[in-house]
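Morning F.,

Quick status update on the modeling queue. The single chain you submitted on Monday has been processed. Sequence for confirmation:
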Amino acid sequence: MQAVRLALPTLLLAYFLIEARKSRIFLLGIPFLMYMKHSVFFDLMRPFWMPGRFGSSFHLIFWLAIVWVICTDLLLPTSVTGRRRVRLFGPRLLVPEEAILLLVAAAVVINVCLSTLRFGDFASTVNSASGFVYMLLGYLMVRGILGQASLQDTRRFITALVVVNTLAAGLFILHQGLHLPIYRATEYQVTLFQGELITRSFYFMPQLLVLAVAFFVAKRTWDARTLVIAGITLAAIVISYTRSLILVALLEIALAMAVRLLKGGQLSMLMHRALAVVFTVACVGALVLAFLPTQSEFLLTRFRATPSVSNLPSDRNLQNRENKLRRTYNHAVRVNPVLGGGFASSGDDPFQAQVDMMTSDIAWVPLLYRLGLLGVGLIGTLFFVSAGRSLRWALSVDPQVEFFGLLWLCCLSALFLWSFSSETFMSPGRYALNLWFFAFIAGQSAVERSRVAESAVEQRPRVVLSS
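Structure tokens below.
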């Protein structure tokens, strides 16, 4: 097994480097492999985590910066590259999405200033704010890289990410479902159920399951590879024993079908897709029931314990997350209800340690604590307006634009809902890529604008001047 742990990340790295010779967007695969980290054993690739005294967040932003410099030819003069200097962070501002992000950046700057005045330690304040700074810088870098890639290359890159995630999902099934010693990590939870141990862990869980589901539901036609991706992804979601993730995946499937029904003229495709999804789910369910009967019963028991809609407030998990939000809000209100508690260190504010622990259960806790109601409102609005843009794309007659629209609409909707039971866009060790999906939408929007503008110029009637 040790040979697999070393060979898999090496082969994945080699694949992205080879593909980068055709399209430099594939260099972005390096930070994404770092983002996926434990699920594909990329934590064993020591050159990417040296020197060890720096945290994983710094290593991720460092390698993302290297990729960004290469993709934008930042260090090369135009006489060498043979092309005019590109915009380092991509084309012009995307409104209203990036106007909202500018307000988030302004809130971060204001809170850094206020926290410095409050605690009198600028270095400590900046260190506490580094995660949010990495998020915003990472967004700009990914946007700049995507703004120079064609939609076809971007789609190829997303497909590669989904395939890698499917490999990770397969390993996850073997470890958590069949209890093969794939990963060397302490389980999050071990339960004895009907005489058999049920293990649950999110430490090495595939990071892009939501994207994988959005990918196969957004495709117009399914081939054998798509069926394999769908089957393994759904099986991994089931084996996670996570009710919220299962419901989020079902939401993505239902949302994609609803958009196709709303669009009209796709009834035949909708029927074929519905049959394909039903067939895949049935096969996955049958295999899980056949090979993992105890695990299946454990999952069903968890769903049976879920209260009805009228009694939903009595659910212990919901009460737990509501309590965490309330505690965080009450603490932030004492400092500033609008801007939150700012960027205090754990030494300045002991509640900071509790925030770090609560983040894994709900992504909005650190946002509420650091940036207050203003930060929560801005990021919530960003999800809403980005979903609106994605819906407009999904209703396009262009198959390529429609694919990306459905992909991001499903992805955004799923991540928003899942953020109330997971860290999603506020993962502490992955700050530089926490807003990657927003950056993809902005980058692709710029490429689509350029493509439409070029098409309009080509179709413009030519005027012939006679002498």
